[in-house]
């Protein structure tokens, strides 16, 4: 079901445009930082295997969201009416879809680490096919869920003049279902499993492996709290009708998520040690080059 009119003015109004210009600057910074991180992963030949899958997927979703915003900005400021219906659905559903994937894949990462640490099972080897199956089936199920809700008119694509298109969930039960299944339950599972990992590691004798895992879980919880503060409000309010949310609140919430996308290039170092390694290598190489240049200058003066 849809609620938009091809004869409407398809551009953003002045207020929306000015705010999106701010977001665009932040997104360009984010694109640069994320591109730099991906480049570092390639030049340092970091081994990419199934243990790296969920962390990389999270990083990739950030990059996709930023590219999607740039595409949205270009289309909205240079629009062709013939493609308006597609663009409206893209604006309304794509970001929500990627948000859900981020949330669920972070939970999958927590589940894998829990079994690895507490049950001492290498799930990436013993349950390789199951992980791949889940990674394929979950995004498909999310699409099916969205399609069903739209088909039966429980959620509609709402076009507001001068603003971006958004989802309006008309059924309160659909809102409750989406919030509980796609937001609260994955977050609760993630927190619970990571806290269980910490409790388990505290009871064990302190060994090198346990100490590494303890730091890993602590860093992940810090990352998760930052993600929840910056990203959580948007994931929560996107299920509600935008008219119920003031422009100021909407601006702040989107600003927080945009900032989160940008700084995730650094924050993912707490997700996986391999991200931290490449940033450290780059930082060290920059320091060495700067020190070498300074030494050469001193010698040239002498």
TrEMBL record:
Key words of the record: Membrane, Transmembrane, Transmembrane helix
Taxonomic path: Eukaryota, Metazoa, Spiralia, Gnathifera, Rotifera
Highest taxon in the source lineage: Eukaryota
Residue ranges crossing the lipid bilayer per the database entry: 22-43, 50-75, 95-118, 130-152, 172-195, 216-237
Coiled-coil segments: none
SUPFAM superfamilies: Family A G protein-coupled receptor-like
Principal subcellular localisation of the protein: membrane
Protein name (record): G-protein coupled receptors family 1 profile domain-containing protein
Domain G-protein coupled receptors family 1 profile: start-end pairs: 19-268
Subcellular localization: Membrane
CC per GO annotation: membrane
Organism: Adineta steineri
């Amino acid at each position: 079901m849809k609620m938009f009119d091809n004869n409407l003015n398809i551009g953003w109004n002045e207020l929306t445009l000015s705010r999106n210009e701010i977001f665009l600057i932040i997104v360009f910074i984010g694109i640069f930082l994320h591109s730099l991180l991906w480049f570092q992963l390639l030049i340092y030949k970091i081994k990419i295997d199934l243990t790296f899958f969920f962390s990389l997927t999270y990083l990739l979703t950030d990059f996709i969201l930023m590219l999607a915003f740039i595409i949205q900005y270009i289309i909205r400021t240079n629009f062709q009416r013939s493609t308006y219906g597609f663009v409206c659905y893209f604006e309304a559903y794509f970001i929500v879809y990627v948000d859900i994937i981020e949330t669920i894949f972070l939970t999958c990462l927590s589940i894998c680490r829990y079994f690895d640490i507490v049950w001492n099972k290498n799930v990436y080897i013993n349950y390789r096919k199951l992980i791949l199956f889940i990674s394929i089936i979950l995004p498909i199920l999310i699409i099916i869920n969205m399609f069903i809700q739209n088909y039966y008119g429980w959620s509609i694509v709402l076009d507001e003049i001068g603003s971006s298109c958004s989802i309006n969930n008309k059924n309160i039960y659909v809102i409750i279902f989406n919030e509980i299944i796609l937001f609260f339950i994955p977050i609760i599972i993630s927190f619970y499993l990571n806290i269980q990992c910490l409790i388990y590691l505290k009871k064990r004798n302190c060994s090198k492996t346990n100490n590494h895992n303890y730091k890993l879980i602590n860093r992940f919880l810090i990352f998760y709290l930052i993600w929840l503060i910056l990203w959580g409000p948007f994931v929560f309010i996107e299920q509600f009708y935008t008219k119920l949310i003031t422009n100021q609140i909407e601006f702040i919430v989107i600003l927080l998520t945009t900032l989160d996308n940008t700084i995730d290039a650094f924050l993912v170092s707490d997700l996986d040690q391999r991200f931290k390694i490449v940033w450290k290598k780059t930082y060290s190489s920059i320091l060495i080059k700067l020190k070498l240049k300074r030494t050469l200058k001193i010698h040239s003066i002498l």
